[in-house]
Amino acid sequence: DQQVKQNSPSLSVQEGRISILNCDYTNSMFDYFLWYKKYPAEGPTFLISISSIKDKNEDGRFTVFLNKSAKHLSLHIVPSQPGDSAVYFCAASSVGQNFVFGPGTRLSVLP
Amino acid sequence: DAMVIQNPRYQVTQFGKPVTLSCSQTLNHNVMYWYQQKSSQAPKLLFHYYDKDFNNEADTPDNFQSRRPNTSFCFLDIRSPGLGDAAMYLCATSRGGGRANTEAFFGQGTRLTVV
Questions:
Q1: Chain B: closest CA distance from residue A76 (Å)
Q2: Do the chains contact at A2 and B107, CB–CB below 8 Å?
Q3: Cα-trace Rg, chain B
Q4: For every one of its 115 residues, what pLDDT tens digit does chain B have, with 9 covering 90 and above?
Q5: B39 min Cα distance to partner chain A (Å)
Q6: Chain B interface includes A90 (CB < 8 A)
Q7: Contact B4 A43 (CB under 8 A)
Q8: CA distance B96 to B67
């Protein structure tokens, strides 16, 4: 049973436009959410996180939105750049619970 | 500078031949994790150490073992690799192990091929 879901395996976006990656979770005990970026043949790199006490966190071109009632979070990248092309993993955790990852969304930013 | 280092990056082993993957960290984090990731799937937690306290996931096969001789190093031993064990193995560290709001830092992974 997947506790963290990323229903879009892939996404293509034009350079300069907004990329929106979505993530849903089922466990209401999760209180900390993270996004990781992964290039081929490399380990995931931490990108941005959000605590459940917030509904938005912004870091440069990256913004994460959290909708607790819908158990949904999204990562917005604007403007998208070709270097953003990678697989993006959503992860969730809570006190006493280790990180649970979604299956990832492959983002392709087209020049 | 790399903070979580995995060796080797690529490992080829024979079916049934024991293999050890290694991970070291310079972050002095309490927690070290081993994940298995197969193509297009979520990284799957195999086990983790909180300091010296070993925590096995319920569905991790007995074929997989781990050792943490000190804070900096952690090893993944696969006693009898099968073809289904071919995957990317990711080591990660964190300060609080999910017990505090903190991120995990990953190594570059070891791609294991079983022939």
A1: 19
A2: no
A3: 13
A4: 669 999 999 999 999 999 999 999 999 999 999 999 998 889 999 999 999 999 999 999 999 999 999 999 999 999 999 999 999 999 999 987 555 668 899 999 999 999 9
A5: 9
A6: no
A7: yes
A8: 19
